[in-house]
Every structure is written in C-alpha cells, then in structure tokens.
C-alpha cells in the first residue's frame, strides 16, 4: 500500500528543463530561466555532444533540488535515461516528458501512462475473472 | 531527550493512524453503490484530459518552434542562439506556486512575469495585512483554471517580456515576439498537464487500493 508523502508547499518554485536548444531558448523567452549566485542554471541544453552521464547528472540534480517543482524533459532525451525516469516516483518535482521538433510525443513511452496502463492489460482483466 | 522521543513517537503514531483512517474511509466509500464506477470514471476522465492537453501542447510548441525558426531566418543564426543566453545571476520571472490544499495531491499555480520588485512589494503587503480569504482572492496569484498571468499591471508584464527578449538585441523580429507568446501558451498548458498528471496518479492509486482490498 502506497504511503502518503509529505508535499512541501513553495511560493516561488522553478521549472527545470533538459531539452534541445530551440525548446530551451523558447521557454527562456517565456521567463523561466534562473541563474543563481553560483551561476548554476535550471536548464541543460542537449545536443549531439551531450553525454548520457551529463543528462543523468542533470536529472538527478534537478529532481533533488527543493526549489524545482517541474522538470521538463524532451521525450527522446528521457528515452536515453529511461530506467532513471521510470524509477522516479515522487510527486514533486513532477517530471513531464515533452515532444521535440524531430520527435513527436509518443504516449507509449510516457512514464506516467506506462505506470497506469496495466489497468488496461488483458492480464489484469483475466485475473479479475478468476 | 526522552520527552522529545515520546513526542516524535506519538507524531509517527498519529501519522500511521491518519493513514489507517484514510484507508478505512476509502473502503467505506467503495462499499457505497456506484463508488468504484465513479473512481473508474474519474480515472478515465483524467487520462482523456491528460492526452488532450498533450495535443494542445504539441500544437503550441510547433508554433513556437516555427516562429523561432522564422526569427532566426530573418535576424540571422548568430543572433538567435543559446550562446547569447544570460549567465549572470538573475531570478526567474515566471515561477510556480505549489499548494497542498486538499492534503492529497499537489496543486501547481503559474505565476507569470512576476518581477522581483513586485514580489517584494507583495510580500510586504501580505505581512502588513491580516491573512483572510478576501486578501488571498485579491492577490496577484490566480489559479490556472482562470488562465490569468500572475501580475496585475499590464505595463509590468510588457516590461518583463521586453527584458526577456533583450537578450537577443534591441531590434528583434516580430516572429521572436510571436515565439515568446507561443511558448507562454505552451507553459500554461504544461501547468494544466502537471495538475492533471497528479489527479490521474491519485485516481490510479485509489483504484489500486480498491483492487488490493478486494484480493484480501
């Protein structure tokens, strides 16, 4: 049985981004960019030179920071660290997988939908009939 | 020390008691006729809304990328790229407020274009005035259901928007402004998605608990 997790309230939380250049630039135009005193940003621009380790480290950092409420991650980037994304189950920050220019949104790979899809599988229906 | 231990133990006990009471409440509710169907409908509605919102998001993002590409074409690739991004210390102009009003799932509210000066003034006002329901309603924060920006003054919003655009120079393409508006729309949809996600997961967990209680 799932135990209730304490959800911290926050009046001024940030949106973190792990996505391609155009997506990050676009959302920065919308005013979500934050640079702290240590010059740490709330985004990681993923390009052909970005390694999986860098993406993993950014994901771990953003999901452990207390000032971040939502982590936006392009779905194709999330697929590179799928095991990490699927094993994450805290309510805050919320992980939202978004489409990118070259990779449209695929509900089959969405971590939230894959968690709930067992309700629609034939196995669960069959077990109910036994 | 012993007193503190006693207090923490009693705190944990009351939390466990709360959980047990919640489960008992859920079991009792599910015994009512039509309760399980209601949970299933709630879950299906959340799922449907979640997927529809993703369509809206894809549409807003596509428009944003297209406008950004048009701006890059007219202004030049060297004037619209990530190397121009401001890496000096600056707070985000658009932030989020997380509340936990019903105690079961988080609720996220978007606060668009809230300048640091306005926020400081707002916090000073909140400290001076007693907190009651009318002051909460009159504050600059409005829920996403109404889809308003988090700042009362339109001039302030335009000022913050221009500040954000100024990273790419003074003379900018109208397509860059259009791209900014598209991404703002995408952001609003994302907040709705985030709230729908928590509603979806909550209904799913409720259904799981009902299934588990049936198996026992």
UniProtKB/TrEMBL annotation, chain A:
Keywords from the named record: Hydrogen ion transport, Ion transport, Transport
InterPro entries linked to this entry: ATPase_V1-cplx_f_g_su, ATPase_V1-cplx_fsu_euk, ATPase_V1_fsu_sf
Keyword Acetylation: no
Highest rank taxon of the organism: Eukaryota
Listed GO biological process terms: proton transmembrane transport
Record bears the keyword Transferase: no
PANTHER family reported in the protein's UniProt record: V-TYPE PROTON ATPASE SUBUNIT F, VACUOLAR ATP SYNTHASE SUBUNIT F
Family membership noted in the UniProt record: Belongs to the V-ATPase F subunit family.
Functional summary from the UniProt entry: Subunit of the V1 complex of vacuolar(H+)-ATPase (V-ATPase), a multisubunit enzyme composed of a peripheral complex (V1) that hydrolyzes ATP and a membrane integral complex (V0) that translocates protons. V-ATPase is responsible for acidifying and maintaining the pH of intracellular compartments.
Subunit note: V-ATPase is a heteromultimeric enzyme made up of two complexes: the ATP-hydrolytic V1 complex and the proton translocation V0 complex.
Protein name in UniProt: V-type proton ATPase subunit F
The organism of origin for this protein: Flemingia macrophylla
TrEMBL record, chain B:
Name of the protein this chain belongs to: Vacuolar ATPase assembly protein VMA22
UniProt lineage: Eukaryota, Viridiplantae, Streptophyta, Embryophyta, Tracheophyta
PANTHER family: COILED-COIL DOMAIN-CONTAINING PROTEIN 115
Lineage top rank: taxon: Eukaryota
Classification via Pfam families: Vma22_CCDC115
Species annotation: Flemingia macrophylla
Region described as Disordered: 1-26
């Amino acid at each position: 049985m799932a135990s209730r997790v304490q959800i911290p309230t926050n009046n001024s939380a940030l949106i973190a981004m792990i996505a391609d250049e155009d997506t990050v630039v676009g959302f920065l135009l919308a005013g979500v960019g934050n640079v702290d005193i240590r010059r740490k940003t709330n985004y990681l621009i993923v390009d052909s030179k970005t390694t999986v380790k860098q993406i993993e480290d950014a994901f771990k950092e953003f999901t452990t920071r207390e000032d971040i409420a939502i982590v936006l991650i392009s779905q194709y980037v999330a697929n590179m660290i799928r095991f990490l994304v699927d094993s994450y189950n805290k309510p805050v920050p919320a992980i939202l997988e978004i489409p990118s220019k070259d990779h449209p949104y695929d509900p089959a790979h969405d971590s939230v939908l894959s968690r709930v899809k067992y309700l629609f599988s034939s196995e669960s229906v069959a077990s109910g009939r036994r | 020390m012993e007193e503190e231990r006693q207090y923490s133990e009693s705190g944990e006990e009351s939390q466990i008691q709360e959980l047990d009471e919640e489960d008992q409440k859920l079991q009792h509710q599910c015994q009512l006729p039509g309760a399980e169907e209601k949970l299933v409908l709630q879950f299906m509605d959340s799922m449907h809304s979640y997927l529809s919102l993703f369509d809206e998001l894809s549409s807003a993002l596509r428009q944003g990328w297209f406008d950004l590409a048009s701006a890059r074409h007219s202004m030049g690739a060297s004037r619209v790229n990530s190397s121009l991004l401001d890496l000096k210390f600056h707070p985000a102009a658009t932030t989020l407020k997380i509340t936990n009003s019903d105690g079961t799932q988080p609720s996220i509210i978007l606060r668009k274009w809230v300048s640091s000066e306005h926020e400081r003034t707002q916090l000073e006002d909140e400290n001076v005035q007693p907190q009651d329901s009318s002051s909460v309603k009159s504050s600059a924060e409005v829920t996403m259901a109404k889809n308003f920006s988090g700042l009362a003054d339109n001039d302030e919003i335009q000022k913050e928007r221009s500040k954000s655009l100024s990273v790419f120079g003074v003379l900018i393409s109208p397509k860059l402004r259009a791209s900014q508006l598209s991404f703002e729309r995408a952001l609003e949809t994302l907040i709705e998605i985030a709230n729908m996600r928590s509603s979806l997961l909550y209904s799913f967990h409720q259904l799981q608990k009902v299934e588990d209680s049936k198996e026992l």
